[in-house]
Amino acid sequence: MEETRLVLLGPPACGKGTQGRLLSEAYGLSYFSTGKQLRREVEADSELGREADTYLSRTEYVPDRLALNLVSGWLAERRGGWVLDGFPRTVPQAVALDAFSEERIGGMRALLIDVEREVLAERVAQRCECSRCSWVGTLEEVRERGHCPDCGGGLNQRRDDEPEAFQKRMDVYEELSLPVVWHYEATDRLLRVSGIGSPEEVFTRVRSALSKHG
Ligand code: AMP
């Protein structure tokens, strides 16, 4: 069977991280989130992190070159299937990934998780993530547990989840990332699922979309 190679698309807080994690567990895929990696680099105060932070603090996308650097380094070390969360986010990134794929991988699909803007605004107000692993949950869960249920790490709210920053991220998404959806649609590689409901409900749809068209 051909290895699963999937890019997750969709607006901020649509559930890419949660579904990426579920996919990676269920299908044995390597998982990489560019946003998460960028935040780690900022925390570690690396050279890349310092450059990235000038964009992240303004709620802007980092330059394509920087995102590509992160992903191509990660992909070059992969054996077997993978799922990418948050990449590609612009058409030039998608074109670069296609070029990379043609040489090295092939058989890649995009999965769009669809959620309306109003629902997303409510979600981000409640969202928390682990600073160490890929766990994502709600403030309510944080109040109950205090620490990450998976690795015991500290839990944070993201600064870019504040209401104003979120609205700006949505605008940037619509301008720069919706064309990425059309890029995969035009080349007949797009799967689309509704992201409304519990993580498990959404995951059931994801599995069914993958088994029908994957
Ligand atoms: P995320 O955790 O996926 O929501 O990403 C957080 C932020 O990191 C985004 O709002 C962007 O500013 C930046 N980022 C993540 N992935 C990319 C990418 N592929 N290209 C440009 N910027 C990115």
Quick take:
The chain is of the alpha/beta class.
What features would you describe in this structure?
The protein has 214 residues and is of the alpha/beta class. The protein has a domain at 5-114 and 176-212: Rossmann fold. 54% of the residues lie in helices and 16% in strands. It has helices at 16-27, 34-44, 47-56, 64-76, 91-104, 117-126, 139-145, 163-186, 199-213; strands at 5-9, 30-33, 82-85, 108-114, 127-130, 136-138, 155-156, 190-194. The strands form two sheets. The chain has a five-stranded parallel sheet, with helices on both faces. Strands 6-5-7 form a three-stranded antiparallel sheet. Strand 5 (127-130) and strand 6 (136-138) form a beta hairpin. Helix 2 (34-44) crosses helix 3 and helix 6 (117-126) crosses helix 8. The longest helix is centred in the last third of the chain and has 24 residues, at 163-186. It is globular, with a radius of gyration of 16 Å. The model has no long low-confidence stretch (mean pLDDT 92). It binds adenosine monophosphate (AMP). Adenosine monophosphate is lined by residues 12, 33-36, 38, 55-56, 60-62, 67, 86-87, 89, 93, 160, 169.
Can you tag this structure with a few keywords?
single chain; 214 residues; alpha/beta; Rossmann fold; five-stranded parallel beta sheet; three-stranded antiparallel beta sheet; 8 strands; binds adenosine monophosphate
